[in-house]
Structures are given as C-alpha cells and as structure tokens.
Structures
1.
Amino acid sequence: MTADPKPRSTSVTEMTEYVLPQHANPFGTVFGGQIMAWVDLCAAICAQRHAGRPCVTAFVDDLYFRGPVRVGQVVRLRAYVVATFRTSMEIDVRVSGENTVTGESWPTVDCRVTFVAMGDDARPTPVPALRLETDAERADQAAAEDRRRMRLAKR
Ligand SMILES: CC(C)(COP(=O)(O)OP(=O)(O)OC[C@H]1O[C@@H](n2cnc3c(N)ncnc32)[C@H](O)[C@@H]1OP(=O)(O)O)[C@@H](O)C(=O)NCCC(=O)NCCS
C-alpha cells in the first residue's frame, strides 16, 4: 500500500549547537568538517521523519562556507524536504551563526543533501510523496527534479 503524501511541516528539523573549543580550528572558528557533520545529521533526521524509515546519505551538493562561527557562538541548522522522488528525497539545510549576546545572526552555509530510504532488506524503499501545498512548493519540486537529473548523470 502506498503511504499518504506528507506535508513539509511534519519533518522540518532544527538543531542548535554551542561552539566549544573541540569544534574549532587554529583560527578559533568551527571546522568545516564539523559543520558538514551537523548538516548531515540535521538532514538525516528530517529525511527519516518524512520517510518513516532509516535513510542513508547518497549525494551532497556544493558547500560554500559564507561566514565563520567562532568559539562561544552558536550554530543553528534548519532542514526541510524540498522534493521527493521514488526512494530518495532532496533535503535543504540552512545553517546560520548566532551571537547570543548581541542577538546578531548571519548565514553560514546553504546546502542540499539527497537521502535514500532503506527497507528491512537494506535496499532502497519507496518514500511517501511530499504533499505540495503552494505554487512555491510545486516550483521547488520541479527544480529539484532538474537537479536530480544532473546528479544522476554524474554517476
Ligand atoms: C545510495 C544507495 C543506497 C543507492 O543504491 P543503488 O543500488 O544505487 O540503488 P538505486 O539505483 O535503486 O537508487 C536508489 C535511489 O538512490 C538515488 N541515487 C543513487 N545515486 C544517487 C546520486 N549520486 N545522487 C542522487 N541520488 C542518487 C536514485 O536516484 C534512487 O532514487 P529514486 O528511487 O528516488 O529514483 C547506495 O549507493 C549506497 O548505499 N551508498 C552508500 C550510502 C552511505 O553509506 N552513505 C553514508 C552513510 S549514511
């Protein structure tokens, strides 16, 4: 039986990380690899909430680190499902830095990650469709289908 479509709102995932010295490089700012790990975690939770299955990372789009986050500041992540395909999903993750003392916040990374839902047989398994509720969401799904074709062409 095919699962009912699910709206984006059911899987939106937010994480807040306090930057400690063990997260930092010699410049006192967060390691790129640490941000990538948080991006992967936040996106994985979002994907699994939507799929209702364990999911694996299949593809990470380009990552551009727009601004550093220092020790003592905060990294905030927000992930949502942009589009669903058959067994895979494109997840958008927005990362920002925050100075909790001044209230300032700034963009750090925007990234898209593709996850594949796994069945009990450890093979890809279908995911519920995304319930597209607005013209913007329908446009997002169409744009994601174009990006998916380009990713698959690189295999
Ligand atoms: C991702 C993985 C499950 C795909 O398995 P596969 O045998 O290629 O399976 P399929 O060809 O049936 O593809 C399954 C889905 O993955 C998608 N996919 C595969 N490679 C992809 C890529 N490079 N980019 C985007 N999507 C990809 C396919 O489009 C398909 O999605 P769809 O059903 O929505 O069309 C497999 O390559 C894998 O296990 N990779 C390692 C994952 C991993 O260890 N991640 C890190 C730890 S979580």
2.
Amino acid sequence: MTTQLYLLAVFVALLLGLVVGKAWERYKLRDGRWVDRRRLREMPHYMLGLNFLVDNQVDQAIEELTAAASTDTDALEIQMILGNLYREKGQVGRAITVHQALLQRPDLTKLEQAYVLLCLGLDFRHGGFVDRALEAFQEVLRLDPRNRYALVNLQKLHEDQHQWGEALHVREQVAKIDAGRRPAEQQILGFLRSEIGGAQQRAGDAAGAARTFAEAIDADPRTVPAYLNLGDVRERQGNLAAAVDAWERLVEVVPDRAYLAFERLERAYRALGTPHRFIDLCRRHIERNPQGWRGRLALARHLAAAGQHRAAFDLMLEALSNNPHGLVIHQEIWQTLSALGFEPGLVHRYVALTRDAVFYLDPHVCRRCRYRSTELLWQCPQCHEWNTFVEERIAPARDTPAADVMANES
Ligand SMILES: [Zn+2]
C-alpha cells in the first residue's frame, strides 16, 4: 500500500473517530450519563497518539492510543482507530477482533453500530473475506442507507469479482447521493456499462452488447472503450458502415484517444473501397490537434505503405518535434530513411531534430496513485479508479531530474 493511500486510510479513521465521537457525545448527554470530553482531550496518551498518527508513526500511535484506551475504556473512537491501525499494519485478525468486540457493546446507537460495521467491512475486505465484507457493508447500508463510503466499497468489491451489473447498480445509488456534485460520476457509470457490454459480447449476445455500449456512450461520451467495442460488434454483425460510424465518432468526440480507432478505420475504409477517407480523416485530425503526433504517424505510415516516402518523412519529422521521445516514430523514420537510400540531407534534418530529445520513462502512469503500466489501462489495478492513466515523460537531464506527468495528447 502506498504512503498516500495509507495516509488517506488514517485520515478516514480519524474522521470516523470524530463523527462517532460526536454521536457518542450526544448519546451520553441524552442518556443523562455526562462524560467530559475535555478530559479525554487533556489525556496526554490520546493527544500524543493522534500526533503520532498524523506523523505516520503507526507503532507509537498504537502504543499511546492503547494506553489512552485503558484509561478510558468507554471511548469507542479510540478502539475504532486502534482497530483500523492494526488493519493498516496488516494485522487483519487483530483488527477484526477489536471491531467485533465493539459490536458486542449493548449501548451502541444505530449510527455507532453502522460505523463499527463499516470498519469491520474494511477489515474483511483487506483480509480477502469477500462474502463477509459484502455482508458487513450491506448491514451498514441497512442501518444508514445513504452511507457513501459503504456504497463505494460495495461497488469495488463487485468490480473485483467482475460483477459489473451489481457494481453499476450500487454506483447509481452513489450518483443519486452525489447528485451532480462530482463530474467524474458519469464517467464511472459509463465505464461500468461498457464492462457489462463486454461481458454480453463474450457471452455471444451481440445485440444486447451493442445496446449496452450505446448506453455507456450516452452515460458519458468520453467512454472510449465503448466506441471501440460497439464498432467491433457491428463489424462482426456484418455492418461495417455502422462500425465506421462508431469509430469516427470516437475520433470526433475524444480526439486525445482517437488513435485507438486509426487501425480499425484504415482497415474498414480499405474494405469499403474508400481508402482516401483515411487520409481525409487524418488530415482533419491533425488540423484540429496541431500539437499531436499520432495522427501524423498514422498518416505517414499510410503514405509510406503507398510508396510516398518523402511525404511520409515530412510528417514523421513533424510528429517527432511534437514528441521527440517516441521510439515508434524513430523506428518509422529509420525505415523511411532506408527506403530513401539514406539521403544525406534527410539524415541531417533528422539528426538536428533529435539533438534535444528526451525519453519516456514508462508509457503510462496512474494520475491518482502513480501505478505504472506498459499498456494503457482503463481501470487502475492498484487504486481501482477509472480512466486515470496518462503518459509520463521526463524533462531533459540538463533541465531537471524530477519526473513530471504531462497530459497525454495524440
Ligand atoms: Zn491508480
């Protein structure tokens, strides 16, 4: 687990502690059993424990909070945080024991019960006890139907098991709670629908899959895999023109991922007897994305295949000046130079252009958790977020040694 995720978990634990603390305080007041919360805050073990927590010194935090808990055995939130810390340390069994013991308390309010169950669900999920985690989160939702955190965890559990329909159903409830406050919401709904379509496609339900892919695009027009798959389904159904429609729409609506449809479109246009449409499409794409390189490379390859090496070479140099570290461009250039007999003037232009080249580290990195992947992924295997991958570049060594992430462009 990365430090960032770890800090997040600690933060959530703290937050939960505060929320439950408040509820608990109200409960004590209502029950007529007055407990002075200030006494807790004045306890050195408690404050020290929280400080160690913020400082990411888990072992010391556990030590101090354990001492605080033995002084004030009633303090639910301290036990809850302790349990969460055991979980984050990988001591899942211990975390489960602590949280289950809390559930045995006879005087828990509904809200307190929900929060302890939430912690327990996280323990189970962490320990790989999927069914018990599902049960715990469902129980949280029975007690507190609008608990967003439980819903999101439930969604992720379903996603882990590729239960896309269930995941979508849960996510729609999250969307209702968020009600347009988070723009990423539609994107997640789109990607989940796209996965459902993929499952239908694999099961042989082409018509159902096509419908679902169209729904995914309606949910969020930036759901790139839905366009690709929709076209593939239509192509397999024998409707190449409709397939081309889907792929062209991708180029139009999501230009930074347009390149994913280039090969399919080139092949389809050829099959339809209209290869010039590929040249037109690339030219339009290049015009609309003057800083891009993939449209230029695609067109250059197309022209080179037709023997137009000089025009291809010019396009490749343009692509290279937009993306000097694209190995694939260098390879194409060498092939073209070879086809043109290594004409000295052309070689000179290439060498002059590459003098300032920088290199790719890893092609794709998750913006959220910085997970690295050699291929473009739609869902991050580490933080499970959707559509977070960008291409990573480093600046030339003479400028700065620090890696920085730049938005991908085509
Ligand atoms: Zn990630």
